[in-house]
Amino acid sequence: MTERTARINQFLQANGWGEADCKPLASDASFRRYIRLTQNGQAALLMDAPPPKESVSPFIKIAKHLHALGFSAPEIYAEDETHGLLLIEDFGEHTFTRLLLNGADETALYELATDTLIALHRLPADQAIPGDLASYDQQHLQDEAVLWADWYIPAVTGAPMPAAMRKSYVMAWFECFRLLDNQPQTLVLRDYHVDNLMRLDGRSGVHACGLLDFQDAVKGPSAYDLMSLLEDARRDISDSLRTAMLNRYFNAFPELDRERFETAIAVLGAQRHTKVIGIFTRLCWRDGKSVYLQHIPRVWRLLERSLKHPALSPVVSWLDRNIPADQRITPPKPPQSQEAS
Questions:
Q1: Alpha-carbon distance 244 to 108, whole Å?
Q2: β-pairing, 209-211 with 185-188?
Q3: What is the pTM of this model?
Q4: 282: Cα within 13 Å, side-chain hemisphere
Q5: Architecture label for domain 3-88
Q6: Could you tell me which CATH class the domain 96-338 is placed in?
Q7: pLDDT digits over 89-141, tens only?
Q8: Could you tell me where in the chain the CATH 3.90.1200.10 domains are found?
């Protein structure tokens, strides 16, 4: 028995789940893992987030905050923050992704997801945003955008991006990020898409929308999570559905400057898609998770669409000068010797 396994067993015993049947769930892109526990007709999830690679502290903070606001984040039954272990509410199997694959009403699910954001964004900023939360400021956005430079470019070209080229890349983004100044600020959950949303039986309205994977939440532009929902790296969404959800959101906020908000969606979308291409490349080259490469063609299409907005002209000009079309591709897998087992 490993030290980690012994720690988990001790945690389960101490919190009344020592005799539970354990079923590991599919892993995600992080170092966290989840185990479904069943015992005496009851269910719970064990979150195993081993320090120092992971921390449960942000999850605890945001989950409790969302609960206090009346949203459906998993209830926390027991916690060992020091050792990265949580017992949390099990929302079941009905992720939006799984429901959509089984023929659920797509429009109804996206309306529920959009309405949940509307309810959150209607709250005053000082109520929606917990204290001491990091800001999604220009530096934060910039740090994420350079993941593309640091991982995608070496994978495609075989060499790191030259320093001067990297500096000009950063400056191109800086010009775009200035357009986000004075955008409405709220709690940004950051990974708000159908993989991380669940329909909860026995609950109505926005309470029926179960929220997952919010531990990276920040204070930032209200456009971000709506963009994340409607420009999904893992799922194609029709233009008509995208337009309908945007209109639904704008109808809820008639005072919102639609042109500026759509500019924010374009800039944030381009930033996110660039970041995701970098992250998916890193997951393959560093972590041996090549399955994420299958999504990169879709993310490139989303990025190219965002870049059509005139606000992104500095980035478009940079790409046209430095990255020809034949390098805007799915990166190859690393040599076999570099892949994780």
A1: 11
A2: unpaired
A3: 0.93
A4: 15
A5: 2-Layer Sandwich (3.30)
A6: alpha beta
A7: 999 999 999 999 999 999 999 999 999 999 999 999 999 999 899 999 999 99
A8: 96-338
